[in-house]
Amino acid sequence: MSGNERGLRAESGRNFTYGILQQLGVDIVTGTYGHANPFPTEAELCKRLGASRSVLREAVKMLTAKGLLKARPRQGTWIEPERNWNLLDPDVLRWLLERKFSPSLLLEFTQVRLAIEPVAASLAARHADDKAKAAIQAALRRMQAAELGDDDPLTSDIAFHVAVLEATGNRFYAQLRDIIDAALRTSIRLTNRRKGVRLASVADHQKVADAIAAGDADGAAIAMRHLIVEAMTLIESAVNKGDEGE
């Protein structure tokens, strides 16, 4: 077998394992399994999903690491209470937001964003190098292109916020990119719908970018805070109106 063939098989195996992970993760967060319907045995799942024991065990291992499952030898596997789930895991947050849409959960995470992103913008204004500033400007140009229908409004908006996190020069902030990405995919759709628009305000994002480019730490923080407070207000409106759908 050639190296390329082995690589393709390995990639196929990883994709299949991740597919099993996704299916089981969604089933757990949407309540398919729970007290009334316990998590199936390994043999049942292998048969149902057409997976080998090794693939299934790997998926269960990953779900256990995310706090969704607990397994003990000779005692079986069971669903952990939601309070034990790792909500800061991008997969878990995405499953909860996309498959079990909850404005209340989105509001809680937006409150966390309010504590993170204005400070990130301030740090970016202080520490961003030319490459990082160029990445922010490139994301902003993508947002401008999206206004003309030449780029995707959602991914360009996400790219902007991720670029700001990475421009901080802080490894901890940079590692928040995946979870911010996961939350924004739901948040942006909801807030734009609430505003009655398809696109985010490029002008408001431009203020953040300009302040970072000018090294204006306070201005960058204020501009980013404005963006997130506006989003939080719209999400609060959805919560108050009991909006549970997209």
UniProtKB/TrEMBL annotation:
Q: Which SMART domains match?
A: FCD (SM00895), HTH_GNTR (SM00345)
PROSITE patterns (alphabetical) = HTH_GNTR (PS50949)
Pfam families per record: FCD, GntR
Domain of life of the native organism:
Bacteria
Show where the HTH gntR-type domain sits.
Answer: 14-82
GO MF term list: DNA binding; DNA-binding transcription factor activity
Q: Give a yes or no for keyword DNA-binding in this entry.
A: yes
Coiled-coil annotation: which residues? Answer: none
- Keyword set, alphabetical order: DNA-binding, Transcription, Transcription regulation
**Does the entry feature the keyword Transcription, yes or no?**
yes
What is this protein's name? FadR family transcriptional regulator
